[in-house]
Structure formats: C-alpha cells, structure tokens
Model the fold of this input.
Amino acid sequence: MSVGLRAAIHAGIPGNKGGTHLKTETIVLNQERNVSLTTFIQAVGGEFGRIGRRPAVLVIPGGGYHFCSDREAEPVAFAYLKAGYQAFILRYSLNEQSVWPNPLDDYEQAMALIRQNAALWHVEADRIAVVGFSAGGHLAACAATMSRNRPNAAILGYPVIDGNCAREYQRTAPDVVAHVDENTCPCFVFATRTDNLVPASNTIHLIDALYRKEVAFESHIYSNGDHGLSTSDASIEDRPFCERYSRWVSDSIAWLADVLGGVTPQGLAEPRFGPKVNGNREKMLNMDCTLAHLMGNAAARAVLDEAIPGWDSDAPSGRAQVIRLRDALNRRGEDESVARAIEEKISAIENGSREA
Done:
C-alpha cells in the first residue's frame, strides 16, 4: 500500500522515555468504497517486561451492512487493549457497495496488511482473532469459514449466520453454516435468547455445524437482552439485560488464552488446550483420535484388534464419537507399555480424509 493511501491520525499517551505507548492510525484500504483500518498499537518491552509481540484482535462492528456501529468499535477494541492485545477496527463496504464479496475482500485486505506489518506493529501473526457483531459477526464468521487469510480464532457476538437472515441485510450475503469445515478456526459465540432482531437460532445453527465438523468452540446464550448490547458498559447501554451478559468480555479473553495463549509480563503464554477438539484432523493418526474415527481406518483397526481384543466395545454407544483412544485406554486400565506400543504403530499410519 502506498503512503499516499494512508490518512493517518496519530495519538498517544506519553511514555517514560519521550515516546508514546499507544499509537493509533487510520489507513484507507479502499477510497472508493470508504473502507478503512484503524490501528491501536501498544508498546512492547521496557515497562512491559518480556513482551516482544502481542496477540491481536480485528474488530468488525455491526450495522446491518448499512453502517458500522461506533458502539461496537472503539469500546470493544479498548477492552482487548486492556488485556494486552493489539487492536484493529475494520470499517468495511456498506450499502450498495456491500454486494458480495466486497466485504470479505475488505477483510482479506485488512488481515493481510496486519500480518505483513506484524513486526512493525508488534503483532504475533499466528495469534490474531476477529471479533464481530451482528452483520459484522456475519463477516467475521465468513472470514473464519471461507477466507484465504483465516483468523486464528473468532469471537462472534449475536451474529447473523443463516442465509435467509443474512439476505435480509445484504441480498448477496452467503450462508455461513454451509461453509463451516474442518479448517474453521476456534469460535467463541454469544447471543441472547430474547434478541429482538437476529434470532438466537443463528447461533444455535452455527454451534451445531461447529460440533459436527469437530471445531473447538465455546458458546453462551444469555437469558435476556435486546440486540446490539455490545460490551453493555453503562456509558453505552441503558436497556435492561441479564447481569451475566457482561461477562462475555472477560470470558472471551480467558477463552483466547485457552486456545491461543494469553499475555503475561513474561511474554506470551502457551495455549492451555489449543485449537483442536481431538486428533481426527491431524496428518497422521494419533492417540487423540476418537474411537469412531479409528474404526473407519482398516490399518488402525488391525493394530488395535491385535493389541487389545474387544477395544471397540464402546462402539455401539454414542461415546465412540467423542472418546479419544488415549482416554479409552486409561478407562480400561491398560498398561502404559501397551499404550506406547499402540502409539508407535498408529502414529505411522496416514490419516485419510473423513467427513464429519
């Protein structure tokens, strides 16, 4: 991108050594469609200890593809900045310019720019999450399921997911559920049961698709609250909602630490659980594959039949779909030497493609 395309507004809070520890800049991505990326970059090192690079969030406000809600922009970015993230806000193509795939192209350009400038902006390029709301949640979910530059995680607030719902706002918008696949990133999804604009069924259909494709997710459908509550801070919201709704911010930050690793004074922590539910999607078979998955592989069955006759006794039950081989062997009380011998053999077997 040429310097001439940058409309920059620099702001900062003075640091100890004459610099600034928060820098913001607005970059024009597409002048004709009025698309921009606003950056909020925190310093690293110095008073921030061993932090060399930070994870990041790309915030995508809602607005029905007719406007970008300010309530779902800076207030959201600041919440993640406080948790140690770099933050970016995408204001994407709207109204007649929002014909598909323009909005997704806007996302692609923004994410590519962030990753290209990862060193300059002190960003860990493989720890970037999208945070989208309503129609922005639709765009964020499309980024998670069908983009070239997929995010590493997605946080989706009261998102538009179903095709018939999406087309009420943008007639060319795609159905997200149809595009959920095994490469979809982990998702944190929240909504309210009484949403008065986007039915909670959108969230239910999405988490069902994520479950079927074995994609890691966490979901919260709160009991009461209207559409568009954003962070629900008192400064931006006075409508009634259940008090638990406000926890989505802290819960999503804790969830990001689980799947991507959080920010500590010692640097970036390792993920607690990682992005995978099990080992079914790895290149080679492994001890974290489910029994049902292994039953579909003749070579794996032969190894297990020889080592443990009757190993598939869980197969007739629903447990076979979720119990991992490692856990099944532990439940049976198998000797560690048997487990090691099995692991050595099945880890040499290539994992064939399999539909969930």
